[in-house]
């Protein structure tokens, strides 16, 4: 077991953004002392960080706690993030040194002290990488599962559209809708022909390229019988177009709105009257709503992976980077640089 460090580097939010995240949004704090462990605590070495669009909403300047989407990150706070880490020191009988766990308690820290009660042991599935615990077997997969089953009440007779279909949550949602539920028609929306080809490989009947100059026409052609259930990950113009493709008494699952996180003025919804005329139900949710069902969801997702109904092939974009480049990797979420789950693998961290 390597020697236990006495200091840790951390990325803090130094200038909470109102619009786009800038270079001065984060600052690197170096060589901060690591306190002594208390009973029931673990010292984790961060191996992987989860990069999620929702993180942008957590640090919004002026954010009110009662209106927050998730953790509220204030000026001076360590940037919140999911992580996969290795226990390098333990004051808990439940976790030995060397155990791999996932946590939301440490944020962007090289080393973090977290309560043992707040970590989850990484499941061991033969032939599968442990970092799937941050993707299809973690919050990403549970977001897709909870959104479709608990909120959307998905069933096989539906026409389903999923935006952000090549992203972390969307790609899992595609596979649940087609490979597990067996919906009669599943359409993905993604950016670029390569991503669309991958979405169809996952099981989608069709994938519409929102970067194509013929996107509007293609979306209409892909949904001739209209749409019963729309899983929205992006908001903005695509949501506005989807209002006109929804069937009467259909439902929209509002999972995310990445198109407007950096600039809310992009949220032009001039087709909103369709909600009234077509009697559309819109329901938002956050994965934390299903906390009491995480164990159930996780077991079902793991079984789907074992049965091959959810593919783990090419399901993550893993960027190896030194700790100093953590924010730089996170930024690529907004440039379309990832297919599936975007993970930062800290070098020279080794499993």
UniProtKB/TrEMBL annotation:
The keyword tRNA processing does not apply. This is Predicted NAD-dependent oxidoreductase. InterPro entries: ADH-like_C, ADH_N_2, ER, GroES-like_sf, MDR_fam, NAD(P)-bd_dom_sf. Keywords: Oxidoreductase. SMART domains: PKS_ER. The lineage of its organism: Eukaryota, Fungi, Dikarya, Basidiomycota, Agaricomycotina. GO terms for molecular function: oxidoreductase activity, acting on the CH-CH group of donors, NAD or NADP as acceptor. It comes from the Eukaryota. Transmembrane segments: none annotated. Residues 42-344 form the Enoyl reductase (ER) domain. It comes from Phaffia rhodozyma. Pfam families: ADH_N_2, ADH_zinc_N. The keyword Hydrolase does not apply.
């Amino acid at each position: 077991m390597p020697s236990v460090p006495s200091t840790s580097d951390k990325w803090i939010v130094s200038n909470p953004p109102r619009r786009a995240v800038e270079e001065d949004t984060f600052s690197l704090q170096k060589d901060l002392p690591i306190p002594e462990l208390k009973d029931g605590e673990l010292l984790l070495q961060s191996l992987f960080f989860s990069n999620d669009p929702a993180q942008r909403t957590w640090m919004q300047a002026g954010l009110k706690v009662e209106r927050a989407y998730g953790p509220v990150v204030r000026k001076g706070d360590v940037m919140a993030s999911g992580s996969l880490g290795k226990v390098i020191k333990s004051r808990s009988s439940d976790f030995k040194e060397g155990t791999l766990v996932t946590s939301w308690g440490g944020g962007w820290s090289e080393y973090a002290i977290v309560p043992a009660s707040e970590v989850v042991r990484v499941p061991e599935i033969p032939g599968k990488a442990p970092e799937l615990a941050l993707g299809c077997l973690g919050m990403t997969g549970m977001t897709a599962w909870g959104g479709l089953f608990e909120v959307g009440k998905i069933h096989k007779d539906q026409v389903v559209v999923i935006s952000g279909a090549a992203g972390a949550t969307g790609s899992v949602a595609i596979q649940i809708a087609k490979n597990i539920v067996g919906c009669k028609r599943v359409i993905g929306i993604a950016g670029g022909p390569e991503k669309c080809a991958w979405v169809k490989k996952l099981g989608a009947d069709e994938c519409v390229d929102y970067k194509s100059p013929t996107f509007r026409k293609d979306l209409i052609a892909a949904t001739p019988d209209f749409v019963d259930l729309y899983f929205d990950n992006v908001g903005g113009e695509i949501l506005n177009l989807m209002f006109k493709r929804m069937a009467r008494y259909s439902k929209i699952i509002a999972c995310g709105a990445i198109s407007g996180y950096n600039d809310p003025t992009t949220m032009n919804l001039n087709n909103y009257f369709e909600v009234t005329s077509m009697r559309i139900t819109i329901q938002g949710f956050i994965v934390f709503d299903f906390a009491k069902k995480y164990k159930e969801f996780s077991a079902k997702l793991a079984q789907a992976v074992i049965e091959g109904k959810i593919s783990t092939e090419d399901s993550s974009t893993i960027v190896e980077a030194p700790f100093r480049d953590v924010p730089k990797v996170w930024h690529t979420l907004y440039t379309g640089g990832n297919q599936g789950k975007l993970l930062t693998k800290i070098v020279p961290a080794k499993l």
